[in-house]
């Protein structure tokens, strides 16, 4: 595995990085990697729906049915609030509409600890390229990542372990238990009237 001497930065103007620092625009680098990818795996603990879908549509239409897409997101709060599930279902629906067929969009529950990994892998036939750092998929923030190229058994095994644990948003609908005021304010809804719940302070 080789490590690129270049750092990949989103919104580098935030710190006025000069020519003396070997850097490149992260967004442009991801666009270059995804164009010819035969497999895309992205892990994050946050997301932005529109930029994430836009990045994927950089894959030519003729190649989409043969490109494997794997997205796994953590929940942005300790409570399993409905919004991330709804957003990720939107991502899945939009990518299916864009003719991607080999698709997994999944969420890792925040219990007992928050899923905080930021790891992107783009495979070009048999050659993987990795980005590791602070960026979440579709992030609109200032981010920094490093690029590695080549095979590595440990992160590959890690990806498989996460995928085995994550829950595909296209599968069973997850019911969220709401029995405290915190759950209510995070979740934004109460159980049906037919099933009253006592809220504990």
Helix content: 25-40%
The biggest beta sheet reads: 9 strands, mixed
Distance between the termini: 53 Å
Give the number of DSSP strands. Answer: 9
Strand order within the widest beta sheet: 2-1-8-7-6-3-4-5-9
Q: Mean pLDDT score, rounded?
A: 85
Q: Which spans have pLDDT < 50 for at least 5 consecutive residues?
A: 194-201
Radius of gyration: 19 Å
Strand content: 25-35%
Number of helices: 5
- Along the chain, the helix and strand elements come as EEHEHEHEEEEHEH
User: Strand pairing plus helix content: what structural class?
Assistant: alpha/beta
From the spread of the alpha carbons, the general shape counts as globular
List the helices and strands and how they pair.
Elements: E1 2-10, E2 23-25, H1 26-35, E3 39-44, H2 49-56, E4 68-74, H3 82-97, E5 103-108, E6 119-124, E7 127-133, E8 143-149, H4 153-165, E9 167-168, H5 181-187
Parallel strand pairs: 1-2, 3-4, 4-5
Antiparallel strand pairs: 1-8, 3-6, 5-9, 6-7, 7-8
Helix pairs in contact: 2-3
């Amino acid at each position: 595995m080789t490590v690129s001497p270049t750092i990949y930065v989103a919104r580098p103007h935030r710190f006025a990085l000069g020519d003396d620092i070997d850097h490149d625009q992260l967004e442009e680098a991801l666009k270059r990697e995804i164009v010819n990818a035969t497999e895309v795996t992205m892990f994050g603990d946050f997301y932005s729906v529109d930029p994430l879908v836009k990045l994927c549509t950089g894959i030519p239409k003729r190649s989409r049915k043969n490109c494997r897409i794997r997205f796994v997101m953590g929940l942005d709060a300790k409570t399993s609030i409905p919004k991330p599930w709804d957003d990720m279902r939107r991502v899945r629906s939009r990518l299916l509409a864009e003719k991607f067929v080999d698709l997994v969009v999944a969420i890792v529950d925040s219990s007992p600890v928050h899923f905080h990994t930021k790891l992107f892998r783009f495979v070009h036939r048999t050659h993987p390229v990795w980005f590791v750092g602070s960026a979440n998929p579709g992030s609109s923030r200032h981010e920094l990542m490093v690029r590695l190229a080549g095979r590595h058994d440990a992160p590959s095994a890690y990806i498989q372990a996460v995928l085995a644990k994550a829950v595909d948003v296209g599968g069973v609908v997850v019911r969220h238990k709401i029995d405290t005021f915190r759950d209510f304010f995070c979740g934004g809804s109460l159980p049906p009237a037919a099933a009253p719940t006592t809220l504990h302070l």
